[in-house]
Amino acid sequence: MVQKRRAGAIFSPGSEGGGELALLEAIRRRAGQISSSKSGSRIRLGIGDDCALLRPAKDEEIAITTDLSIESRHFRLDWHPPESVGHRTLARGLSDLAAMGARPVAAFLSLGIPARLATAGSDGKRWVDRFLDGLMALAEEHQVPLAGGDLAESPVALADIVLMGAVPRGKALLRSGAKPGDRIFVTGKLGGSAAELAALSAEPEAFASKTAASADSPHLYPQPRVAQGMWLCKKRTASAAMDLSDGLSTDLRHICDESHVAAEIDAAKIPLAKDATLPMALHGGEDYELLFTARPSTKVPRRIAGVAVTEIGRIVRIRKGRPVVTLLTDGSVVALEAKGWEHFAGR
Ligand SMILES: Nc1ncnc2c1ncn2[C@@H]1O[C@H](COP(=O)(O)OP(=O)(O)O)[C@@H](O)[C@H]1O
Ligand SMILES: Cc1ncc(C[n+]2csc(CCOP(=O)(O)OP(=O)(O)O)c2C)c(N)n1
Ligand SMILES: [Mg+2]
């Protein structure tokens, strides 16, 4: 192994012991609290060696996902409380596992931050500790151990999360399973993240005290639908599924493309979150709810693990000259363009 740079060469070691090694030790201590308490852990070796070692069960497949969160793109230091940035970092990965019906097994966090975020501020707290508070609180809730990661000083803050999950062999929920005639459902409500982000950008000070997860904060503290995804998988209810990160208009298009089908959505049936408009629900993104389809004969409950499920439309055959996704609104039929979030699209 290449010799590590001297402690402090990466993070300046302030009075809080902010050097890389001290920070890593702090993370390791906190991570240990979850991994040791997790029963039936698949982790043989977590933080401390060159790799983590995991031992999958014979009858399971491993689901792996990675998501990058970058300052100014996914969060702003002057808008988002650090606890929210930590929570959102992990929530994005957990939401991808939920979309496949996978049970979370382990998380890996690669963190790049400017040195000042690893140094105590005027309130005596370091940004990085508050970030970890938010991330670890959600990790605790889902009993997912932090099994490794990487640390570096960076000109901007960024966090990449890798999530590993387990799903019964051959049973993962895919984007490609939808067929004409299937009904389309969403969990929870849509547009809440975009609505809260709009309020946050208008008055960030009003959100500075939101330092702990709460169900009425869909942007700062989205709740990944892990239990719901696992339920859909276990009961074989969903024919296709994905999570809503970019917005319904863009994400439903992904299901259509992967399944080679088209879709019709009833605007009036879309469950709007508090303060959300229809465009926010269609295109806002970051709701981290599940979008899934089910065969016409499949019974779909109104609630799954405490979260409402709403039927919003149906899968149809692709027809020449017809848009892939159509929106039925006030008796008229319009093409629903994929106007959700797209990187490199000039935002
Ligand atoms: N830089 C990359 N290299 C390889 N695969 C990628 C890269 N970026 C995205 N992908 C893959 O493309 C697919 C779609 O990615 P993305 O839209 O980011 O998914 P999601 O919205 O679920 O996070 C995924 O299978 C993802 O793993
Ligand atoms: C400062 C800031 N501006 C805008 C947004 C809105 N936003 C950023 S990325 C994104 C879409 C989801 O992110 P992406 O990187 O596409 O995640 P993925 O689909 O790959 O999971 C949205 C709605 C935000 N969260 N923060
Ligand atoms: Mg995206």
Enumerate how many helices there are, as a single number: 7
What is the H/E string?
HEEEHEHEEEHHEHEHEEEEE
- Ions, cofactors, ligands: which are bound? adenosine-5'-diphosphate, thiamine diphosphate, magnesium ion
Amino- and carboxy-terminal Cα gap: 41 Å
Summarize the amount of helix as a percent range: 25-40%
Residues in β-strands, percent = 15-25%
CATH class of the largest domain: Alpha Beta
CATH topology of the largest domain: Phosphoribosyl-aminoimidazole Synthetase, Chain A, domain 2
Estimate nothing, just give the exact number of structural domains. Answer: 2
Shape: globular
Provide the residue-averaged pLDDT. Answer: 92
Assigned CATH superfamily of the largest domain: PurM-like C-terminal domain
What structural category do the secondary elements indicate? alpha+beta
What tags apply to this protein structure?
four-stranded mixed beta sheet, 25% helix, PurM-like_C_sf, 60s Ribosomal Protein L30, Chain: A, Phosphoribosyl-aminoimidazole Synthetase, Chain A, domain 2, alpha+beta, single chain, 25% strand, EC 2.7.4.16, 347 residues, transferase, 7 helices, binds adenosine-5'-diphosphate, 2 domains, binds thiamine diphosphate, binds magnesium ion
What would you say this structure looks like, in words?
- Helix content is about 25%, strand content about 25%.
- It is of the alpha+beta class and about 350 residues long.
- The chain has two domains: about 20-170, 2-Layer Sandwich (60s Ribosomal Protein L30, Chain: A), CATH 3.30.1330; about 175-335, Alpha-Beta Complex (Phosphoribosyl-aminoimidazole Synthetase, Chain A, domain 2), CATH 3.90.650.10.
- The strands form three sheets. Strands 7, 8, 9, 10, 11, 12, 13 and 14 form an eight-stranded mixed β-sheet that branches. Strands 3-6-4-5 form a four-stranded mixed β-sheet. A two-stranded antiparallel ribbon has the order 1-2.
- Strand 4 (about 105-115), helix 3 and strand 5 form a beta-alpha-beta unit.
- Helix 1 (about 20-35) packs parallel to helix 3 and helix 2 (about 80-100) packs parallel to helix 5 (about 225-235).
- About 45% of the residues are buried.
- The structure holds adenosine-5'-diphosphate, thiamine diphosphate (TPP) and magnesium ion (MG).
- Thiamine diphosphate binds near residues 197, 286, 341 and 343.
